[in-house]
Amino acid sequence: MRRDAQLDSDTDEDEDEDDAGTEIAFVLDGSGSIQHDDFQRAKDFIYNVMFNVWNTCFDCNFAIVQYGSKIRTELSLLDNDNGAKTLQKVKEIQQIYSLTKTASAIHHVLTDIFISENGSKIDSKKIIIVLSDGEILGDNMILSDVLNMPQMKGVTRYSIGVGDGILKKPQAIQEMMDIADRGKFFNVSNYAALDDILSSLQQSLIGIEGTQQGAGFQFQLAEAGFSTHLMQDNSYLFGAVGAYDWSGGVFLQSGDTVQFLNDSNNGPKFSYLGYSVISAKVKPSTTLYISGAPRYNLTGGVFIFNGSEKYVLQGDQVGSYFGSVLCALDIDKDEYTDYLLVGAPHFHLNGEEGKVLLYKLNQDRFESVSRELKADEGQTFARFGAAIASIGDIDGNKFNDVAVGAPLETDSSGSIYIYNGFKHGLNFSQKISPSDFGMKLVHFGLSVSGGPAMASNKASIAVGSQGGVIVFETIPVIVIKPDITITPDVIPLNQQMIEISSTFDIMYHICFKVINEKLQIQLPIKYQIALDSGVNKKRLTVDGRDLLENTFTLTPDVECAPVINLKYLGCFDCFSPIKIKLNFSLDLHPNEAPIRILDAFTPTEVVKEISFKKDCKVTDCKPNITLSDSKISETSIIIGETQSLSINFNLTNTEDPSYMTTLTLTFPSILSQKKIEGATCPVKNDNQIQCNLQHPVFKRGAQTNLFISWQLNDIKSDLKNSEIIANLTSQNHGSKILDSKIYAFAVKYSLPIQLTGSADPSRLSIEEGKEGQTQKMQFVFQFAGENKYGATIGVVVTITKDTFKTGLDIISVTPHEECVFSENTKAEGSYVINCTMTKLQKIIIDANVLIHDVQEKSNKITAVGTYSFDETVYTAKDTLRTIPVEVIITKLRVTTSKGPIIGGSIGGFLLLFIIIIILIKCGFFRRRRKVDQAQSPN
Ligand SMILES: [Ca+2]
Ligand SMILES: [Ca+2]
Questions:
Q1: In CATH terms, is domain 631-750 a member of 2.60.40.1510?
Q2: Cα separation values, 218 from 214, 215, 228, 266, Å
Q3: Which ligand is nearest to the CA of 399?
Q4: Which residues span the membrane (predicted)?
Q5: For 444-497, what is each residue's pLDDT tens digit?
Q6: Dist CA 354 CA 379 (whole Å)
Q7: Cα of 649 from ligand 1 centre, angstroms
């Protein structure tokens, strides 16, 4: 940047050849107490110092040492060859953090930076600038030892203390004052304020560099003629940048009179006023003399002299060289200046992009225009604005045009940007780079000027590059505006059908109108017509295609192409207009120089529309179709029982036509779409259907009845409530919702079960006198039906007895896993068995019964089975949930009642008598007597 690409006519070339230069080492505090943003500001400060010092000091070399927990050379004196890369290195410095080893860091400069192995020259002037926010911390070196080292002899030291911290710590201030030579300690309250001391520090540095001696010579070293400008009345302006200790000045020479325009010699030093000079004629009697001072207040300035008055336009960035390039522009060719363009070619964001600022003349004063001209995005090193020229009216639109050079663009090959003038300013139209015309050049765009060409009468532009000038001839611009007629351009209502049966043709007619001139030549035009552009299902065709390409020769007599017949196919979409897009270009021979060129600011694409006639009462065509008459068949469904669910839609359009009316129904996965009557529903998936209602046009007064039914999927889900969502939309002015409705319903699952109970034996009895015997018995409860959806069923069996004279012991309960008998319930006189099951299982309760006695006529044991389940999820048809089983206990006893006993005795005696007769007949008693005799001893 300063060595490899120094473009500006340099003011430093008269430097002492034997001067060993100046070496400036920054000692940058990167300790932990410095915030990240503040560290960035410190880096920016160093960047700006280097950038600005380099603009005046050719032999200044920089080094940077950062210190924190360690000490690191960020930039060595050997790293100064390429200005842009060196500055980039400054931007890339990473903060170290931790300790504040200021003394060690200064020691490092003396022992590692200012040594010949690392590029230091013995005779050079040496400067150390320490930038810190606090007192020394964790440093094993003693500051005074380092400052008194022999190597420190002849080194100028500056220190800059930054931050509130340092202001409050006397120790820190003392250290910074010790470091600095007398009068070279700067002190600011925060890092953002560093820019405030930039100017004073730089001027101190440049002062050391030697040029300050120029002050003594005043005009002897004024460099008058650094820039010149010849005016129409043959008077001259001369810039004298060196005048008054480089504050600079401007001379006006008219005939033999020389006038020094700068009115005093106490302007800021090193402003370089006179770096550029121009004049602006603003009235027949008024000429403004304008001169740039690119280092005025460091940001640069432009001085405008109007007679005895003077005012300054100020640049907006330190070091941007605002005002180094100037251009007065008479945009409307009335010979009076309208705009002032000011180049700031060193303006930097990420590198050295450069920019051009615009000022508009308003009653003899130039006022800032918010717009700035800039190089293309990504051109980090462009130096845009290094040259600016009014190049005449190259496009023939009666407004003068401007070229801006960016000589460092694309690795220093350079380019120029063309801006065309208009009534209200400038518009970019073209960029020209050496690669466009196949040349390898360096710094193309270093200078630029325009005017009548040498050989032809066409306007031309001369562009300077390193070692050469390229002259461009301009091609005359032609402005062509197509005039398109479409007949008819509205589709009538009777043609608004999805497919039309009869022929309906549309005529398309283009005329290419030449604006502002009478054409003298023949000009071939290539054009392309895209039918129903942007739509998939085309509504127009020409010979079966939707794209037509043609060439037409424009002559002084014929400007209209032949009429094209377009075939209308019908309208699936009868609402949105049919767009027909025309693109055109000049059909130029690829190997010949173009004879004319189309105006860059007149569109070469024209879209015309064919609209549909609309039977609408209001201009925005508002239909009115509601879902309010539609009903769902069930508000609650039982999976396993309910057969189907349906919605009946009764839809009437009471207002304007509705185009592409669609009903979208979104339903839950427990439903499957089963039947649709009354519309076609082309879009279907697992949980959505989309029905087309009276496509393409649902006319006013039209009615549609739509019936949609779903079957219930036999699956279990956790849904207790569900819904079907209906959205009714039309495509009038894009998709619009006409109405929407939610059809909610409750969901339950069927549980078709029934509980039965039994006891075995179903009756217990004891004989009188045989009380206290244990008897076994069994209760059984079981379900009929099925538990398809896995309901958890709770069964409670409660056994009670109505007397304490009956003892009861539960021996076993099955199933064991599912049922629990709580022994402790026995004491309360009842026996409770709790079962929880999802599988329907038989509940068997075995018990021992001990009947001590029976009171009254009978006693009983009652077992009551009750079942329950989550009724918010399941529903059973059977409402009887409680099943009682009773076992009656009776006592058998001998009765005192005679009737039956006498009857029974007579029958018994009669039978005995017959048996005895039979026994006598058979000789039983005889034998018996013998036996008795034999057995008896007597
Ligand atoms: Ca003008
Ligand atoms: Ca123009």
A1: yes
A2: 7, 5, 20, 12
A3: 2
A4: 901-920
A5: 999 999 865 455 566 789 999 998 899 888 888 899 999 999 999 999 988 988
A6: 10
A7: 72
